[in-house]
Amino acid sequence: MVLFSMKMKTTASLSRSIALFLSTAMTIATSRALSQHTPKPRILITGANSGIGLALTKQLVSDHGCHVYLGSRNEERGRLAVEEVKAHAGHSVELLPIDVSSVESVRSAAACLGEKIGDEKLYAIVNNAGTGFSHGTSPKEILDTNTRGPRRVVDNFMPFLNQSGGRIVNVGSGGGPKFLEQFTSDEDKIRFLNAMSEEEIELELAKIEAAGDAGDAYRGSKALLACYSMDLAEKYPNLLISTITPGM
Description:
- By secondary structure, the protein is an alpha/beta fold.
- It is 53% helix and 16% strand.
- It has helices at 11-22, 26-36, 51-63, 75-88, 103-117, 139-157, 175-179, 186-191, 198-211, 214-235; strands spanning 2-8, 42-45, 67-72, 93-97, 122-127, 167-171, 240-246.
- It has a seven-stranded parallel sheet with strand order 1-7-6-5-2-3-4, with helices on both faces.
- Helix 1 packs across helix 3, helix 5 (103-117) packs parallel to helix 6 (139-157) and helix 9 packs antiparallel against helix 10 (214-235).
């Protein structure tokens, strides 16, 4: 199942909405954990050292009884974020260094999680890490981080995800729907409103990168992220997969 482009206006409201989406089955899981002394629901959040990711981490730890693997590209900022969560929300949080733009980093992070999690399974993966033209990044970097990054994470962490009712949240953007406004034909628009294979997404990424416009790259990266979410939902019908969009 896939839920597409839920629109939220602020960091706080978006993080609450993601927490609500994740918690549909977590209340039962958490109650069971408390009564049977089984592990808490475990959730990986990338880009969680600030903003939406950090706010969501705090809410899941304090309000939903989860254990969060706080993903951060910068280890020092990640350590500071973990300390902040422990000071204000609870101690059920661990740092997981991960740079979603790097294949090697994602593989290393997956191996590290494998050692941490043992025989347990992740309840959810939240692909929150991203970048945009306001960060001074190139179109290539934007596309590689925002579209290929979540795919790298899912490819490497899928073995750890509960295959019966596990959840994947891809954080989108209002820029995604805006990307479709440039198309004059309904055929092009419809193409971006449906699932795309990895090969189809790569063809679109190449076109966007060749155009060399950072703003268009950001919007296109988020539009294609939604297409990727729909493709995932078709491949994994037992998982609940969502693209949730702040802004608009």
